[in-house]
Amino acid sequence: MAERDESISRDGNHSLAQEVVARLTTSIQDGVILPGQKLPAESALIEKYGVSRTVIREALSRLHAAGLIETYRGKGSFVLTKPSNRSFSLDSSLFNDISDVVELVDFRLGIEVEAAGLAAMRHTDVQLLRLERAAAALRANPDNPSKAVEADFDFHHSAALATGNRFYADLLVSLGPAMIVLPRHRLDTHRDGPIEGSRFGRICDEHDAIHSAIAARNELAARAAMRLHLVNSRERLRLRV
């Protein structure tokens, strides 16, 4: 039987990259490619869809931005999670002051402590590497609040992805980086001394403890580490420190 032609038409309503994203997303959604598995090589995707390398790389970039895949130089791209057909609609614009954000942290405690325990039991090697990268990126940006917030959110999103349950990740995506409150006055590191022992350093240590517990597949320790981090975050917000 002849192999079905999957070449993408250039006269559609969407860009070529969007069409590649849609087809790969469908393959992941339908279980053709499972979480933890490697996507076909760029050359195979080029041949399969009849598009250029530039189009394939743009599509992979979009899938990465959506939290569906992680790409490693020299190794390829791996599926992180199965995409959801719908997303949560909790509006982060509702968080207007510190009291709102404190309430959000209370809400996150009920979600992310359980997520950390599930991540410890279920994570794949690819998901764990993404978590490690996010923790390292946070520690590397003590003087760059926007980068620190991005890395902090990526860490919590990565932990949610590692649960293997797409609803945890969907919820965090609906909140977005606005759920992370990391004011400049908390980024007091080497200006007054080394990162170790500083407020920012302690925040990084808390993330490292979560990562270590998940990496060790220690469910109870992962839950405890996430709980401690979020409780400390809540107290830092209340005390404005």
TrEMBL record:
- Which stretches make up the HTH gntR-type domain? 14-82
- Pfam families reported for this sequence: FCD, GntR
Q: What is this protein called?
A: DNA-binding FadR family transcriptional regulator
Example of a GO MF term? DNA binding
Q: Which InterPro entries match?
A: GntR_C (IPR011711), TF_FadR/GntR_C (IPR008920), Tscrpt_reg_HTH_GntR (IPR000524), WH-like_DNA-bd_sf (IPR036388), WH_DNA-bd_sf (IPR036390)
What keywords were assigned to this record? DNA-binding, Transcription, Transcription regulation
